[in-house]
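Pasting as-is:
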Amino acid sequence: MSYRRKHITPKIRRLKNKKIFFKRPSFLIPLFIVIIAVILYFALFSNEFQVQKIQVSGNEKIQSPDIETIAWDYIQKDIFTAGIFTISSKSIFIADTKNVIKNILHKFPDIEDIKIQKKFFNDIHITVKERRNFATLCQNTECFLLDNNGVVFQKLQHIPENMIIIKKTGTTEISLGNTVIDKNTIAIILEVENNLKNNFQIGIKEVAFLNPLIFKTSENWHIYLDPNNDIEGQIAKMNALLKDEITVNTRKNIEYIYLQYKDRAYYK
């Protein structure tokens, strides 16, 4: 037997076997598990990734600490519980922003929209958009603030001055955060209000949410308008009457303007 076969060849085989060992599943799988476990540990428990601060902006009426309290409930999570022993984490990676948004909106109907940003590695930024007052909605003896999407968001004890009052009939219970006036009607009210204010310096005091819509002006006469027909055409007819037939002095004595009929408009 040659020296090469006796001494060198076995050493080469042993080297090959060592290289093959590191490629075996019996080695790679445990190694992979260890690497994943280490990554998860640092992602969940490292101080670098624990949420330290919640910043709230955009709020005017609602206090920031009230919003932060709800947010913290869904940022700190229990990872493992056994009896009285609990392991929890405030890792930014598992912060439940969807539930934060859902529960803040449920708690505060005054808020129209929320955006949440994760500021890596340990800050949460909550941007709040509060609802803006559009009108007062009254049904029977109850009154609420209404925004320009037709959503009621605050119950009122006293009706604010210089705000349109929308009177709604019915017995359906009104819940905060719900849409009670459709956006099409809101758009019609805005269009009539802006037209009268800009062209004739006339305000709107009340709107009866009926069909037709009945507007009570600041001069105490009424406008009857069909919300299901051509709004632009009805407003054009009203403008023609107010410009050409109904003078400023005459307006003091009229009772109403009917616009809902397709081919004509008249007043009394």
